[in-house]
Design brief:
451 residues; APC_superfamily; 0% strand; single chain; membrane; APC family permease; Amino acid/polyamine transporter I; globular; AA-permease/SLC12A_dom; mainly alpha; transmembrane helix
């Protein structure tokens, strides 16, 4: 069978918009209610902590993508820097994360649209969105990137209008009646542990910056472009989260008065703007889910392609690239079919699996930096190198380990069960570990760079 390569078309800003689309800027409204109560009204302070923590993970991703520019992301880094078996288990864990993230978006879309239009069942919306997003991804990543630019721009427009309306209301005397206050960042009678507990909840807001590394083989000059794009995604997203949560706190300071803490974001929108903008806001929220689902659908398709190309999954199917579209066609269709599970799975189950896989990936990326640079290549001859290749990634690993301790028992049980299935499959793949685990040949794929 003729081997076709992916097409390199992506530059810095398309990657940034892909990352922002996956992160979903409007997720702040989903988590605001519970986060404001846990932090005792200091959501912006919690976002600052999360932003700082995420920068350590971004740093480690940037270090690894420079030496292993592969579609496998954390899977490839652990495989090459630590051990092929470590790479397999990271890939196995993160595979479920990537597969379930589109489902989460489809499920949210079904829930909110069925509530807005009671005459149309949720399953119809879910199937419609799956079919549309699968079709867009089949036609190529460049089209998806252009669509995402428009979707992210609309989200930012909605959020921007909301922020302006909030400021207008504050100036008019609503809420605190002032635009400047240190209370959202520091309160003498509030505990730091409350803010860190809120930070653990808000960690999910930043998930998605790493997804753009799955497009490295479709990125022009990925060694330089991807690290810059990842930092930009996290800094832009973090800045918007901090600023918007600050404004919300100023316009609606009574965080204990929500009728439904899970829908607190929508209560704030309705209180500040009225029914007309609330409808526009709902449209923006649905579009945000659409954009995130489209990027995550494309990302897992390329992740499966990397594992199929290695022989970890059947190569004839998963390693296939359409000669006409230059996309992993079979994988895109397969992900669309698997996403139909959103019709039967629950939100709690999806979130439990996603949290488990993400923390596995982030932890091992930090360990990969230490293994590759500090241990294997002995980059430890100066204080600077010790800081860059040991201290910083060790801090990143420790943060993820701390977050691991905050996972619910159900997440640990489900994630552990999935890893056990992976162990059984690896034993079968390697004939009870008598054969080596298949590895990615980065050099062969870097020699062919399509225009």
């Amino acid at each position: 069978m003729q081997q076709h390569s992916l097409n390199r078309t992506l530059t810095f800003w398309p990657l940034v918009f892909l990352g922002l689309a996956f992160m979903t800027m409007m997720i702040i409204f989903t988590t605001y209610g519970i986060a404001s109560q846990v932090t005792q009204g200091m959501v912006p302070a919690a976002y600052v902590i999360v932003l700082v923590a995420m920068l350590f993970n971004v740093y480690s991703y940037g270090r690894m993508v420079k030496v292993f520019p592969s579609s496998g992301t954390s899977y490839a880094y652990a495989q090459k820097a630590i051990h092929p078996n470590a790479g397999f288990f990271v890939g196995w864990a993160i595979m479920m994360d990537y597969l379930l993230t589109p489902m989460l978006n489809y499920l949210v879309v079904g829930i909110y649209l069925s509530a807005a239009f009671p005459g149309v069942p949720a399953w119809i919306w879910i199937i419609l969105f799956i079919a549309l997003i699968t079709t867009i991804n089949v036609f190529g990543l460049k089209i998806a990137a252009n669509v995402n630019f428009l979707l992210v721009a609309f989200q930012m427009l909605v959020v921007g209008i909301f922020a302006i309306l909030c400021i207008k209301q504050i100036v008019g005397g609503m809420g605190t009646g002032t635009l400047f206050s240190s209370l959202p960042f520091y309160q003498s009678d509030a505990s730091f542990s409350a803010v860190t507990a809120g930070a653990a909840i808000l960690f999910l807001s930043f998930l998605g910056f790493d997804t753009i590394t799955t497009f490295s083989e479709e990125t022009i000059n990925p060694e330089k472009t991807l690290p810059r794009a990842m930092f930009a995604v996290v800094l832009i997203g973090g800045g918007l989260f901090i600023a918007l949560s600050y404004i919300i706190q100023m316009v609606y300071p009574d965080f204990m008065s929500f009728n439904d803490v899970d829908a607190a974001g929508f209560e704030v929108v309705a209180a500040v703007t009225g029914n007309l903008f609330t409808s526009i806001f709902l449209a923006g929220y649905i579009i945000a889910c659409f954009a995130s689902a489209m990027v995550s659908h494309a990302g897992i398709s390329r992740f499966l392609y990397a594992m199929g190309r290695d022989g970890v999954l059947p190569k004839r199917f998963f390693g296939y690239v359409s000669p006409k579209r230059k996309v992993p066609l079979f994988n895109i269709v397969l992900v669309g079919l698997i996403s139909l599970l959103a019709l039967v799975l629950t939100m709690d189950l999806l979130l439990a699996f996603i949290n488990f896989g993400v923390l596995v990936a982030f932890a091992f990326v930090n360990l990969s930096v230490i293994s590759h640079y500090f241990i294997r290549n002995k980059r430890r001859n100066s204080v600077k190198e010790v800081v860059l290749f040991l201290i910083l990634p060790l801090i990143g690993f420790s943060i993820n380990a701390w977050l691991w301790t905050n996972l619910e028992t159900s997440a640990l049980i489900l994630g552990g069960s999935w890893l056990l299935i992976g162990l059984i499959y690896l034993a079968f793949l390697t004939k009870m570990f008598r054969k080596p685990t298949p590895q990615m040949n980065l050099e062969d794929h870097d020699q062919s760079k399509a225009v």
